[in-house]
Amino acid sequence: MSAASTEDHRYVLSLGCPDRTGIVARISTFLAEVGGWIVEAAYHADADTGWFFTRQAVRASSVDMSIGELRERFAAVAAELGPETEWTVSDTGERKRVVLLVSKEAHCLHDLLGRAAGGELPADICAVIGNHRDLEAVTRQHGIDFHHVPFPKDPAERGPAFEQVRELVDAHDPHAVVLARFMQVLPSELCEHWAGRAINIHHSFLPSFVGARPYHQAFARGVKLIGATCHYVTAELDAGPIIEQDVIRVDHADEVADMVRQGRDIEKLVLSRGLRWHLEDRVLVHGRKTVVFS
Amino acid sequence: MSAASTEDHRYVLSLGCPDRTGIVARISTFLAEVGGWIVEAAYHADADTGWFFTRQAVRASSVDMSIGELRERFAAVAAELGPETEWTVSDTGERKRVVLLVSKEAHCLHDLLGRAAGGELPADICAVIGNHRDLEAVTRQHGIDFHHVPFPKDPAERGPAFEQVRELVDAHDPHAVVLARFMQVLPSELCEHWAGRAINIHHSFLPSFVGARPYHQAFARGVKLIGATCHYVTAELDAGPIIEQDVIRVDHADEVADMVRQGRDIEKLVLSRGLRWHLEDRVLVHGRKTVVFS
Amino acid sequence: MSAASTEDHRYVLSLGCPDRTGIVARISTFLAEVGGWIVEAAYHADADTGWFFTRQAVRASSVDMSIGELRERFAAVAAELGPETEWTVSDTGERKRVVLLVSKEAHCLHDLLGRAAGGELPADICAVIGNHRDLEAVTRQHGIDFHHVPFPKDPAERGPAFEQVRELVDAHDPHAVVLARFMQVLPSELCEHWAGRAINIHHSFLPSFVGARPYHQAFARGVKLIGATCHYVTAELDAGPIIEQDVIRVDHADEVADMVRQGRDIEKLVLSRGLRWHLEDRVLVHGRKTVVFS
Amino acid sequence: MSAASTEDHRYVLSLGCPDRTGIVARISTFLAEVGGWIVEAAYHADADTGWFFTRQAVRASSVDMSIGELRERFAAVAAELGPETEWTVSDTGERKRVVLLVSKEAHCLHDLLGRAAGGELPADICAVIGNHRDLEAVTRQHGIDFHHVPFPKDPAERGPAFEQVRELVDAHDPHAVVLARFMQVLPSELCEHWAGRAINIHHSFLPSFVGARPYHQAFARGVKLIGATCHYVTAELDAGPIIEQDVIRVDHADEVADMVRQGRDIEKLVLSRGLRWHLEDRVLVHGRKTVVFS
């Protein structure tokens, strides 16, 4: 948690593998051998899938080797845990990179820019890409590049625009591509290409109200709470693994415009929480679901 | 609110009609003319449907006539507001009647029995009807009649059982028929017969997870909040007007059994709130939605 | 609610007076006489103090007179309700004015600037006054004047600085003076001078953790929820009438820095909600408490 | 979590000790050596106090020895971690015992009886002790002993009554002594005697509104949320380590009686959650605070 200054940076190990006896012992013994002072440790054994997940953070200063050597040595441990094991070791002292995709709605962009400026987001926002120019000025005020990529009205003709977006995004090799109310459905090849890195905020409590105009759908149904969902983007619309959700109470006096206004606050909170957890390697995806060590 | 002792009972007017200028003036002038000291007043003008709703409570002691005469005199006012006007005048000093339909799950029944015993529910529970005998003992401990109506396994053969339930319920002419985890789909003629009085608790945040085993559906989808919905029963399954909803946070460590356990608390809260509002004439139905003057 | 464009602006009547029979009738009859189409109406009869409160909004287009004439005619009605009656009639088409007092913390300022830019706040931010220059740049980016008023370290010598703040504020005759994490205790004469207009955000769930460093106090006590409180400023520190409060869950893993970060989100929400309600004349103060017709 | 049937019971290790490198490795290596299949594991390193906490649950069937032998062997590990180490090893297959202290308010007792009957509480309620007879009947309906211990009006003369309560409680050697709205302040020697086992539910969001009539205090202050706090009892009134808290929204229309009614729901939830966590050895006390591995 808190700020990751280079003085007290941490090495963060995230891992998922088939569950069996002795995994915690194997990993923690390794960490002890390299001198790692554990400041955060979380585990989850998933009875449903028989999978084991862990995230551990050690003080970098307690480990007497480079992160490269640490990774090399841990690779041998991971190999013992089986060929399906997936793991990463990251350094909180290395800034992560984020690219934002936006359209006309300002609130999520404005919120993330403010959090980044305040040092709350453990990443740099490298670029903002918009299919409209509405959010260019506010982006540039924060000293961040804005790229305008116009999208044709006909969905069938958007291929070149998406290709341009892809190139602009990939130039930064970002840890997260955030669809901050981008309002465009990514083609499946981009979903695949950015798998595990593309994060969307959907303005409903999924799986309710998939697709367009969810506040209108919520108003028509007469629900008493509205919500927002932060999830990884997959080829199936609004069906990717959910990272975070939250809701706010509404009542009969709230018209669609009121729901839109109140919903913005939930969208901002849910997106910023989900993104921060993703950037801190707290989110492990398994199938259609996530483990979140928040 | 508070207790409706006969000492300080109230007359409650609930009304819905097409909106136009002067309705509030007409109604409040009438109440002033009969001496009514207003202790609660709520209004809603629905821009979407052009409908007007109000609920007003006056001290019975301030009105110098019987409730029968009050109704008679108000009928003339209502007539002025147009033929579509729907209204009721009730007396909080007259105990309302509730019949509960249950199956095997005890928590909602136990919760409502406790609230009734504690004087929190402004009604008498006249009878409990179960398609199993599991909840007979706890019902009788509270001095309430329990009727066992076995249901055949084949849904096509349940007609006589539902007919028996109907007769047992109608014998009490209840203000509310509560499906307290009854787990049986009412035939459409019963939905029609008890329209506006049959209240169900569904163990999901509708419209997500309609139908059977919603906690299993929620677990499979990996949602981060689970919920419950109290709604009026209509012929379309889990699609009736929503009275109240609420949610509770879950995470990756919660298995289906944990969701079931935590969900019970939300079911109890949501059902008890929705039922109380219904019994206090705080819920006005219009089309597929409700106005709740909570 | 929603935006107050001049096309569909509304006249809003807010009133408090000693309760008795016939008040609603008197007011609503008046509104009907002037042709007022009521779009929102809320009432509260306070049993504890014997006071009556109402807020009513009518379509301006439905009233065939100027707001000046409307006020003049309503004054006669108010006079009938007794000498203690307090009331206002405002026009949502007239922009209200807000002045912000800040120090070094950016989040509340940044949030309010974003909401104002997005048209969500029914007011213009006329000026920002800071006792430090940290927030000058972000203020000016939004095209808003920033005034730097340095404060001496010795509290006993701050009189002239407060006098300068007072002049800068009063130049705008604002409807709200918002202490957006200003971190300075207003002298009692300023509390008196801006009574009912000075709004503070305190970063605790009052009355817990009055005064300095509330997150440190919360951490030391080991509470499981932290909160924020938006309240009117009075001479007694953190004891003014509460407009809005909310909380967020924390646990043993959250250090003070985590509480500070998570608390910011609650501060922003609570302040923005409280301020909007104040600006929409939804908050009526009575003694140490508020009636909020949200 | 879930039910602790003897088939799949678990051994639960809870431990607190001064933090240093290698603790996780030492404990998990020990568990691996005895064959322990870990199904739940949680850690917390407290930066503020330099203390380390863990709770781990292993399948009993995976460990090839008695719990007595497991404890004996773990004692050697604990000794390595220093003389300040505190730890327990419990078996979820051994039913725990709870004694309830009550007065006249039924809701918490009724709620706990229902949860125990529904198999939701991992413990047996051995006895209920009341200073009034109001709750005798409902207790006996559940087949549980009720002891009536009248309390003199004069606090100075209550010594013998408390002595009788102590004897009745200690006869069951309970894992938890729950003050379920007992409304009597325990003498400090009983606080000491039941330290870490006596659990109180206070009907406010502590540290706000300590002592008597907290809903009246909340009403007078005009707060917008009311709450409840489950905490360990210590000699200082309402100041013990907090296990769980929650809140519910109220508004100006809620009188004290409404707060009392709505507050009951929060009291029940907070007490039942806190008690369950305590009984599942999820709560570790350190100084004035708790670590809760929920």
Automatic annotation (TrEMBL), chains A, B, C, D:
Record-linked InterPro entries: ACT-like_dom_sf (IPR045865), Formyl-FH4-Hydrolase_C (IPR041729), Formyl_transf_N (IPR002376), Formyl_transf_N_sf (IPR036477), PurU (IPR004810), PurU_ACT (IPR044074)
Known EC number: 3.5.1.10
Keywords: Hydrolase, One-carbon metabolism, Purine biosynthesis
A Gene Ontology molecular function term of the record: formyltetrahydrofolate deformylase activity
Pathway given in the UniProt record: Purine metabolism; IMP biosynthesis via de novo pathway; formate from 10-formyl-5,6,7,8-tetrahydrofolate: step 1/1
Residue ranges annotated for the Formyl transferase N-terminal domain, each copy included: 96-273
Any one GO biological process: 'de novo' IMP biosynthetic process
Reactions accelerated catalytically: (6R)-10-formyltetrahydrofolate + H2O = (6S)-5,6,7,8-tetrahydrofolate + formate + H(+)
Highest taxon listed in the record's lineage: Bacteria
UniProt entry tagged with the keyword Hydrolase: yes
Gene3D superfamilies: 3.30.70.260, Formyl transferase, N-terminal domain
UniProt key word Protein biosynthesis: no
Residue numbers annotated as active site: 238
Family (UniProt): Belongs to the PurU family.
Function in brief: Catalyzes the hydrolysis of 10-formyltetrahydrofolate (formyl-FH4) to formate and tetrahydrofolate (FH4).
Protein name: Formyltetrahydrofolate deformylase
UniProt organism field: Rhodococcus wratislaviensis (Tsukamurella wratislaviensis)
Gene from which the chain derives: purU
